[in-house]
Design goal:
The chain is α/β, with parallel strands linked by helices. The chain is built from ten helices and twelve strands.
Length: 272
């Protein structure tokens, strides 16, 4: 078993650090429906941690617990060695946790640049009055944030659409813009909810490359929900598997791939 405070080196030479977040015995209910039942797992600094499972397994609910959209009725969320009290999403974002959504949540009438700039809200400290006149500190702040956003736009290779309204973009590029907006917040943990859903093969390859680049270049810890098992196995350092709100597997891609309970869940058969 891995020590919580010590890291390890991956097969490709990447360094994974100690535990930065722990989900301890999480149970989430909606009325009489149990969406998550007594699930525990951890997330390590610098790793790509996948959460997988059949439809209705509770994956997005778990991501919503991590991001503060839901507060579980039972269990604890620990972040950077401290128990996290019930928090709202904006408070979780202030802790350095950003996310993308399963259904794209962009401002369709705004340009790509302006959409990505909204990801810098946490870094904007000047008051409304100063921003209205755009002088002094507000001007300096705007210039600094815009420069950072331009680097993200270059990094994700969307320079050619930076002035294009998002509503005119094809689906695959919208997904990339949403990733850019999340990265603009400079997160220490990035939550990706099905970032490749609905994409063709070429778009998936591009997005996979960008996910790996974000992890490598920025050292960002990534928690990923994805249905494409080929993508999950190629990208992830560790995988937690859910089925009907319960955890049925947790380990390396190879360990999960050979787990009979996981095989049964995906094939829909009972193991004798």
């Amino acid at each position: 078993m891995l020590d919580a405070t010590e890291g390890y080196i991956t097969e490709d030479g990447r360094k994974i650090g100690g535990v930065v977040m722990e989900m301890k015995n999480i149970t989430l209910r909606f009325g009489g429906v149990v969406a998550i039942k007594d699930i525990s797992f951890d997330i390590r600094e610098g790793e790509i941690r996948a959460i997988i499972g059949p439809n209705g397994a509770g994956k997005s609910s778990m991501l919503n617990v991590i991001s503060g959209f839901y507060n579980p009725q039972e269990g604890e969320v620990w972040y950077q060695g401290q128990k996290r009290p019930p928090m709202k999403p904006f408070e979780v974002a202030q802790q350095g946790i950003a996310r993308t959504f399963q259904n794209i949540a962009l401002f369709e009438g705004m340009t790509v640049l302006d959409n990505v700039m909204t990801g810098r809200i946490r870094q904007m400290k000047s008051g409304l009055f100063a921003q209205a006149f755009w002088k002094g500190k507000a001007e300096q702040e705007e210039t600094k944030n815009r420069a950072f956003v331009e680097k993200i736009i270059d990094f994700l290779e969307i320079q050619h659409i930076r002035k294009t309204p998002v509503g005119r973009l094809p689906y695959g590029l919208k997904k990339r813009v949403e990733l850019a907006r999340a990265l603009a917040a400079e997160p220490s943990i990035l939550l990706l909810d099905e970032p490749m859903a609905g994409m063709n093969v070429e778009e998936k390859e591009d997005m996979s490359r960008f996910v790996l680049d974000v992890n490598d270049e920025f050292g960002t810890t990534i928690v990923l929900i994805e249905h494409d098992m080929g993508v999950v196995m190629d990208l992830s350092d560790r995988v937690v598997v859910m089925d009907y709100g319960q955890k049925i597997g947790d380990g390396s891609p190879d360990e999960v791939r050979s787990n009979q309970a996981v095989i049964d869940a995906y094939l829909g058969v009972a193991h004798e």
